[in-house]
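Working notes for the structural subgroup meeting. M.R. asked for a predicted model of this chain before we commit to crystallization trials. I am recording the input and output together here so anyone reviewing the notebook later can reproduce the run.

Input as submitted:
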Amino acid sequence: MDYSRDIDKLRHSCAHVLAQAVKKLWPEVKVAMGPAIENGFYYDFDKKEPFTDQDLDQITKAMQKIINRNLPLKQSFMDKKTAADFFKGQGESYKVEIIDGIPDDQVSLFSTGDGEFVDLCKGPHTASTGEIKAFKLLSVAGAYWRGDHKNAMLQRVYGTCFSSKEDMERYLKCLEEADKRDHRKIGAELGLFHIYHEEAGAGLVFYHPKGALMRKILEDFTKDLHLKRGYDLVQTPNFLRGKLWEISGHAEHYRDNMYYFQIDGEEYAVKPMNCPGHMLIYKHRLHSYRELPIKLFELGTVYRYEKAGVLHGLLRVRGFTQDDAHIFCRRDQVQGEVEKVLDLAFEILSAFGFKDYAIELSTRPEKFIGKPEDWDLATESLKKALENKGIAYQINEGDGAFYGPKIDLKLKDALGRQWQCSTVQCDFALPERFDLSFMNEQGLSERPIMLHRALFGSVERFFGTLIEHHAGNFPLWLSPVQAMVISIRPEHDDFSKTVADELRADGIRVAVDARNESLGKRVREARLQRIPYILVIGDKEVSARMIAVRKRPETDMGSMPVEQFLGMVRKEIVDKV
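Returned structure, recorded in token form:
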């Protein structure tokens, strides 16, 4: 049995039943389209009044009645003009517009029962509505018709559907856990970041002290690791002349996502990517084949225009920092360098607790720059690197960057969700456009190959993923506050400060809570802040010059000398437990 195809049929049929139920309850509503999607389905409606929670309950009951009647879902065909006239007569203007764009002479329709509800649809569907065993409507969101902000705003009703109630309950529990792990909620609770939409603009991140500290930890870790792996740190400007983006091809292929402005009558653009700056640095002087590979690394902040409707916390923003590098190498070095990039990616991601990945190799898109034969060679080099490392992968046809094929590494978090992070791309085209060269063994000028790669992907997206993966319970080495010292009464404050100073001198990030609040309240608040260690100091601890250690979540480790505690946490930090 092809489970994925069968579940898609169920979900597609459930979307069809959703539309039928809405039309029964509100005949004046216009229907647009409703496909099956990953883990569910949706349907878009043109309705003047917004759907409420009560409306969703009412729709659910109407859908269940349709399902209980076990109505057959029948396919039929009409010529385009007859179908357009049919839907025009029903006032379904969105269906008419869809029909106008269909190249075939005939269109496919599906009807429920004896024509109670007819929808423009290719299918496939289940044989009858009774095959739908478990569904739930989840939410309502706004969606522009055909995804264009110039078009009408519709209401999109999302739902999920599974072949059994048990499968659906498991999925709903996963959704509930995902909601608890939402990085926007946890980021606010822990005081990590904020996005001031109204005051500063959408999609722009402000890091608060704890969040900025965590960024520093992330950035220092990756900088040090890159230096050990032979990369050179560089820094390039945040905006460059428009002509450079014409040479690179971004002006032609990426302009709608860029910010342009004028200086002294000349066009400039804020950089959406770091590659042109790195190529200018490479081009600054002549290189010998003995120097290659040359690896330039930058934590470069870039800006890209994203539609307001797709912005999402740290995961989709307009300003973000890439851990970007470009490797300039000879043709015979490409495969080996790709393998080294993959090794480094796995090393970095595993340090943050990610162990499971899905790998995709994306090939040449319809719009591309460069020569097809170079694309073939680049794609083959990426394939060989993956196969030589014994890495399983899937082909993602036509989804490469406009300048080269790529390997995308999608990490899986604690809930099994996939997140796009690391990427490595093989580029023959841009070195030619920027006239890059090196002197080969024969003393002749030769074109280098350039590998684009980012391993976090973007610091923002990786940070958001990290929050959700750990639910804010960061490993000790990453936690912005590693230990909270709590003195029970004012007479314990001096020793508490001494302990904190000793820990701080050893590099431990520590805070002191000496407020005039109950011990229970302060311990609870420290736990809510997900602080790994709580060190309580009372009469006994002051007398014995010890600390009472409580480890997250609720482990009482008893009293111990400060030096013993330091030895324990030093090892935990070094081992990145």
